[in-house]
Amino acid sequence: MAAARQYLKLDHPFPMRRGGVLQQVQLAYETWGALSPTRDNAVLIFTGLSPSAHAASSAQDCSPGWWEDMVGPGRAIDTNRFFVVCINSLGSVFGSTSPASINPQTGEPYRLSFPILTVEDIARGGYEVIRSLKINQLHTVIGPSLGGMTVLAFAALFPDATRNLISISGAARSTPFTIALRSLQREMIRKDPAWQEGKYSANAIPVEGMRLARKLGMITYRSAKEWLQRFGRERASVEHKPDDPFGIDFEIEAYLENHAAKFVGQFDPNAYLYLSRAMDLFDLADHGEGSLSEALRRFKIKNALIIGVETDLLFPIEQQKELFDGLTSADRNVKLARLNSLQGHDSFLVDMDQFRPVIGDFLRELA
Amino acid sequence: MAAARQYLKLDHPFPMRRGGVLQQVQLAYETWGALSPTRDNAVLIFTGLSPSAHAASSAQDCSPGWWEDMVGPGRAIDTNRFFVVCINSLGSVFGSTSPASINPQTGEPYRLSFPILTVEDIARGGYEVIRSLKINQLHTVIGPSLGGMTVLAFAALFPDATRNLISISGAARSTPFTIALRSLQREMIRKDPAWQEGKYSANAIPVEGMRLARKLGMITYRSAKEWLQRFGRERASVEHKPDDPFGIDFEIEAYLENHAAKFVGQFDPNAYLYLSRAMDLFDLADHGEGSLSEALRRFKIKNALIIGVETDLLFPIEQQKELFDGLTSADRNVKLARLNSLQGHDSFLVDMDQFRPVIGDFLRELA
Questions:
Q1: A191 to chain B: closest CA residue
Q2: How far apart are the first and last CA of chain A?
Q3: Theoretical Cys-Cys bridge with B154: which of A68, A86, A231, B123, CB 3.0 to 4.6 Å?
Q4: Cβ contacts (< 8 Å) between B277 and chain A: which residues?
C-alpha cells in the first residue's frame, strides 16, 4: 500500500527551531512525473494536519490519494509537466520522524520527550527532501491548511528555494478562536485517563479523547450552511436505545460517530498533539522582527496565489486577505481567490469544481 | 442569598410531553414590581440554559442578577410599570424540579430516570406559575437563547396566555451544526469515567467532562471577532511549566480555564444533559402539523419583537429572520432587530447598550 513511499534518512542532526536536536531524522515523501533536465519544474506539496504523502495514485500505489482529483496527468497540478513531490510532515506518523518514533539515543519512543514542533521545522523537512533531490529552486510550493501555513514558513526560511507559492486556506497566524478550539481538542485527549501523560501503549490508546477531538475537528472543518443542506433535522436511522436517554437522535450525530471511529487508530495521539500545537505557535511575523508586512516583504517569490473560502470558520477569509494585502504592498504579483464553497475549511478536499480551475489556471499562466 | 426565591409546589401531576409524569413538581421563581388591579401588566422571563430565576436584585436579595442592567425601576423592563416574573426552568437546579431532585416515589434522586425534558415542558412550568399568580394573560413573555425558544413554545401551547412576545437569539429549531456541538458537549460529560452513567456522587462529579463541555460552550457562545480584539495573540501571564509541553501558552487558554473552573460545581451534570438535549429536540413546526409557518400562524400574540445578533454562531441571524418572516406572513405586528454586537450568542448578557433600547422602546411603544 505504501509502495510509492520513499524515504530520506538524514545523516546530519536536525536542529529544532524552539530547541532540541533530532538525530537520524527520516522524512517520507512520494513523487509523480519527471524532473526536467534543468531541474526547474518541481512542485512541492505540504499537507494538512492528518494526511500522508500519498496525495495521488501512481503506478507504484494505485490507491487513490487525498488529493487525487488535483494531482495527475492533465490535472490541475499536471504531472505531465511538473515533477511533483508531496512530503509527510515532520511530526506526522506516515513514515516521517514523529513523537511515536524510536529515539535512537534511548531505544524508546520519544513520546513527550520529542522537542516542541513548529511549522518552520516542517518546512525545513521539506527543504531537506528537495535538496536531497538536487533541486535548487522549486517552481511552486503549495499547501492547504497546516500546509498553507507551511508554505509561508518555507518562503520565509528559504527565500531562494521557490519561485512561486500557493497558500490555500492558510494564515499568517492562528486566531484566538482557533487556538481555543485546538487547545480544547488537545485537552480532550490529555484528559482521557488512557492518555497516561503520553505513555499509552499501542493497544490502549486514548480512544475516547481522540474520538471527541476528531468530532470537534469535523464540526469546525465544515460549515453550518453545508450541514443544514445535507442533514436538516433528519432523524438517525439507527435505533435509539430506549434505556439511553442521550443516544443518537439525529443523522448528524450518527455521521460524526461513524467518521470519528474511522479516524481513531489511524493517527498517533501524541503526534496529533504536537502538530496541533505547532499550528497555534506559528506566527509569520516572527520572520519580520514582529512585523507581518516586513516578513512578507522579505519573500523572494515572483508569483503567489492565495486561496480562501468564505465559509471557513478556522482560517477566515480575512486572514487570506491579509496575506494578499501584505504581498501586494510588497509589489509581488499576487492573486487572491475568494471561493464561495459551502464546505468550510475542508473545501479544498471536496469542492474540486472550484479549486481545480483556480490552481490549474495559475500554474498554466506561469508556463 | 436566595431569599427572594419563591416556590410553587404543584398539587397535581405534571405530564411530560414525551411521556412520563412528574409528581409533586416544584417551580422556583422571583418577582419584581407590583401586579396591577386588572392583573394585566405581567412580564414573564424564561432564562437561557444555565441561569437561575434571579434576573435582578431586589430588597429581598441585593446580589446582582444575571440581567441586572435590564430589569428594574426605570430600566428597559421597567419594574415601576410591570410585574416581572422570572422562572427557573423545569429541569434546572436552582429550586425547580430536576434530574437532581428526589423522586418522591422512590426517595432517590431521579438521575437518568427523569423523563425526557422538552422545551414545551419548560414553557408549561412557566404557565403553571402565572396561573398560580392568578394571571390570565401576560403583557409579554420574553426570553433569550433557550428562553428564546421557550417563549415560542409558550405562545404555541398557550395562545391566549400572552399578548406580546420577545424572542432573543432563539430559533424555531436547532441547526445540525448546533446539534452537533451540543451532542459533543454531552458526550464529553458522558465519557468522563466519573459520570458513572449518571450515578456520580455529590463529591465526585464528572469535573473534567463538565469543564470541557463548558469550554466548548464558551468558545461558541462568543465570536471569533470579539476574541481577536480582546486577546490577539497575547501570551498567558501564568508560567508555562517546562515539563508540560501542552500547558497554557495563550491568554485565551488561561481565560477559558478560569471560567470553566468557576462553572463546574455550580451546575448538576445530569441536569445539564437534559436541558441541552431539550434544545436539540425542539421544533416549533411540531405545533403546526410539521409546518413552521402554520405553527406561527396559530400564535394569537398581537406584537412580537425578534432580536438576533449578526455574529451568533449557534442561532444564526437567518433563524431569527425566519421567525420574523413567518410572523409577518401571518399578519402579526412584528419587528426584527438585527444587532451587530461582537459578542455572538452571549451578546444579550453583555452588550447592554444595544439590547436595552431595543427592548425598552418595544415595551414603551405598547403602553
A1: B208
A2: 34
A3: B123
A4: 245-246, 249
**Are A176 and B230 inside 8 Å of each other by CB?**
yes
CA B319 to chain centre: 17
Q: Where along chain B do its domains lie? A: 6-174+282-365, 178-273
Residue of B nearest to A213 (CA): B184
Searching chain A, which residue's CA lies closest to the CA of residue B183? A253
CB atoms within 10 A of CB A184: 22
C-alpha cell at B327: 410572523
Task: Tell me the CATH class for A178-273.
Answer: mainly alpha
- Contacts by A101-107, CB closer than 8 A, 24 or more apart: A101/A26, A104/A23, A104/A24, A105/A23
Q: In this complex, do A208 and B191 lie within 8 Å of one another by their Cβ atoms?
A: yes
Residues of B annotated as catalytic (active site), given as ranges: 145, 312, 345
- Measured between CB atoms, which of B188, B231, B316 is closest to A212? B188
Q: Which of A212, A230, A231 sits opposite B187 (nearest CB)?
A: A212
Residues of B within 8 A of A231 (CB-CB) are 176
- List the beta strands (DSSP E) in A67-198: 71-72, 77-78, 83-87, 102-103, 108-109, 138-144, 162-168
pLDDT digit string, tens, across residues A307-352: 999 999 999 999 999 999 999 999 999 999 999 999 999 999 999 9
Closest CA to B138 of B45, B52, B72: B45
* Chain A residues touching B232 at Cβ < 8 A: 176
CATH topology of domain B6-174+282-365: Rossmann fold (3.40.50)
Considering only the beta carbons, identify the residue of B175, B212, B230 that sits closest to A188.
Answer: B212
CB B30 within 8 A of CB B5: yes
Q: What is the pLDDT along chain B (367 residues), one digit of tens a residue?
A: 578 999 999 999 999 999 999 999 999 999 999 999 999 999 999 999 999 999 999 999 999 999 999 999 999 999 999 999 999 999 999 999 999 999 999 999 999 999 999 999 999 999 999 999 999 999 999 999 999 999 999 999 999 999 999 999 999 999 999 999 999 999 999 999 999 999 999 889 999 999 999 999 999 999 888 988 988 877 776 555 556 778 788 999 999 999 898 888 889 999 999 999 999 999 999 999 999 999 999 999 999 999 999 999 999 999 999 999 999 999 999 999 999 999 999 999 999 999 999 999 999 999 7
Grid cell of A231 as nine digits: 442533514
Q: Do domains A6-174+282-365 and A178-273 have the same CATH topology?
A: no
Joined together, the cell numbers standing for residue B94 give 436552582
Residue A227 DSSP symbol: H
The phi, psi pair for B313, rounded to 5°, reads: -80, -30
Nearest Cα neighbor of A346 from A232, A202, A189, A220 is A220
User: Could you tell me if residue B65 is left (phi over 0), alpha (psi between -120 and 50 degrees) or otherwise beta?
Assistant: beta
Q: What pLDDT shows up at residue A240?
A: 59
pTM value is 0.94
Pairwise CB contact (< 8 Å): B256 & A176: no
| Total Cβ atoms within 10 A of residue A328 | 16
